[in-house]
Predict the structure.
Amino acid sequence: MLPLDHPTIPRPRIGVLLVNLGTPDAADTRAVRRYLAEFLSDRRVVEIPQLLWQPILRGAILTTRPKKSAHAYQQVWTDAGSPLAAVTRAQAAALKDAFGAEVLVDWAMRYGNPAIGDRLRMMKEAGCERILLAPLYPQYCAATTATANDKAFLALAAMRWQPAIRTLPPYYDDSAYIDALARNVTEALAGLDFAPDAVVASFHGMPQRTLERGDPYHCHCRKTARLLGEALGRPLTVAFQSRFGRAKWLEPATDTTLEAMPAQGIRKVAILAPGFSADCLETLEELAIRGRESFVAAGGTDFAYLPCLNDGADGIAMLRTLLARELEGWVTPA
Ligand SMILES: C=CC1=C(C)c2cc3[nH]c(cc4nc(cc5[nH]c(cc1n2)c(C)c5CCC(=O)O)C(CCC(=O)O)=C4C)c(C)c3C=C
Ligand SMILES: [Fe+2]
Ligand SMILES: [Fe+2]
């Protein structure tokens, strides 16, 4: 902790809280069960009445999935822990001094640790009277963006003296985001030892019904892909990954798309996940490991997974631009 009452160190007045989804504390069955129980009990994530859903979750799902998911987490776990947490921590560290000494930059997770409420209370104690909440989801989805904000407001509901709050809007069509992706992808494609027949943009899926009920996520994904394709000068193949449960999810599914490609003469593929601001289980295990395996098993010859923006220079410059815009009027530009 900073010695906040030291006369030469200015007290932060403003907080920026980067928020991502959350991840287990360890790659073992117990930790994954705890994480999944919290995540999948969120009514914004699974929109089935709790009376029906909880017995299914506590029965079939939490008795089988944690072991399987823990095995998947073990394949991507790093010395710094879960990739999602390691990258988000690194993003916060890279932005630490971006907005001057009066701005405290920190990070939190919607599920698990560090908890949003704990970090907001810490910021308040550190002197932050104004806080910018930044859910790091380019495309708005109630199951990600809204629930992160809900959780923050739940913590504020318990405060007698609340800080003022702003939230980062979705940035799916923002030129800072599209340009950062285009630069990142161009660089990654230039480093490949093959020319891909197709470039796939894989977004996390959601139930088709959520789209029909008015969630803009699907439209945001399509627009990101169109703008990125225009910036790259080549159309992207859009697909949706990580299907969960029995309901119909957004289509086409990434796995069936990859498996069908070799028979259509597409044997060399590059794939990216522009909806994830940080690499995580869904990109590193589902796309880079399992996606490659199924593509090659179907007759594909070359496969490259292109990393997310993460804490790379393009990604950090983009976050700086987006956050600085939301801090306008709170922070005097340097
Ligand atoms: C980026 C946007 C995301 C949307 C939209 C989203 C929706 C959504 N997800 C599930 C179920 C699961 N997701 C899981 C992991 C996971 N999901 C996202 C992002 C979005 N999810 C991320 C970044 C991660 C990775 C977490 C990590 O630790 O690396 C999982 C857990 C893993 C597993 O057991 O497979 C589940 C389950 C639903 C139901 C949903 C609904 C709209
Ligand atoms: Fe998910
Ligand atoms: Fe997955």
